[in-house]
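Why does residue order matter? Because the sequence determines the fold. Keep that principle in mind as you read this record.
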Amino acid sequence: MEHHEEVLITAKPPESPFNQVVPALLTAAVVGLAGLFMQVAKLDQSVSTVAADIQELKNDSKERLSDLEGRVRYIEMAIGKSK
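Structure:
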């Protein structure tokens, strides 16, 4: 006994333009996001550098202020002794 099965073969539906556009858009979006992440990393590094510079300036200012206060005290004491 032979068993035959009929298979209906239909023509392939026409390609939708979205089938070509969507992968390209997804690729562009991924590349764009990668670029944004790189920019954020650079900004984060820049912010860290600026914060370190600010801390260094604060420490330098405190040292200078302390030095000036010491000089003023010395001058005040010298003036007080000479009176």
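The two ends are 134 Å apart (CA to CA).
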